[in-house]
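Lecture notes, unit on protein representations.

Consider one protein chain, 284 amino acids long.
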Amino acid sequence: MFSNAQRAEVLVQALPYIRRYTGKTVVIKYGGNAMTQEKLKGQVMEDIVLLWLIGVQIVLIHGGGPEISDLMGRLGKEPVFVDGLRVTDRETVDIVQMVLAGKVNKSLVNLLQLQGGRAIGLSGIDGHLIEASMRNEKLGYVGDVTDVHIQPVLDILEKGYIPVISTVGCDGEGNVYNINGDTAAAHIAGALGAERLILMTDIAGILRDRENPESLIPELTAQEARELYKSGIISGGMIPKVDCCLTALDKGVKNAVIMDGRVPHSILMELLTDEGAGTWIRRE
């Protein structure tokens, strides 16, 4: 057990980091595969509320792929993926909207409020927040982000709430699209000029050797990340995540982090300690 003196020392050690982030905007993308353990989910919400209480402007963007697949299975519909993207016909996009904008979004809002926070849920449809267009007819209603209308998020932050955003988008004709959560997070973080984008996933970060968790690369510049593409170290499912980080940096975000959301209190380790968590990618 910690003594009172040790607890006080921990708080003092965190003070420079609290100063750094108070009043700044941090966008957190909470991935579907990192959301499967209820106890861990509660700890993530605790971390977010703690940061909110010390004055960090948190924007939480969430996925929900496992929940979508679960409901599709119960409805007798087999999920189909092409290059990691869910083929989304009209029936599937209705399921995506129900799960993300309904069940998952409101459960996260409720968890944040149970921890003492104030949160408001919205989707990319609300206020035309995420404008999108169809990526490929073969994928159906999978959307590419064409524009972000950020004012609804700014209004919620100004009133002192935590925005909780589900990544469904829309176009000018009323079509609804399933948007990749990492991509949406990058565009929203860029529109906010966020201090940091955090991608919480089910992997430790960028590894030099995918078979060795000890080979984690703690820090990269954007240029170094691009060089790791060429060498093949960044490959497979890590490519789109790093792409999203680079997109966010290009749009004005100061730095981005890919980290394992299954590690307890990883957000606090990343923001309030020297050690950090995962792989930190910064502008040149």
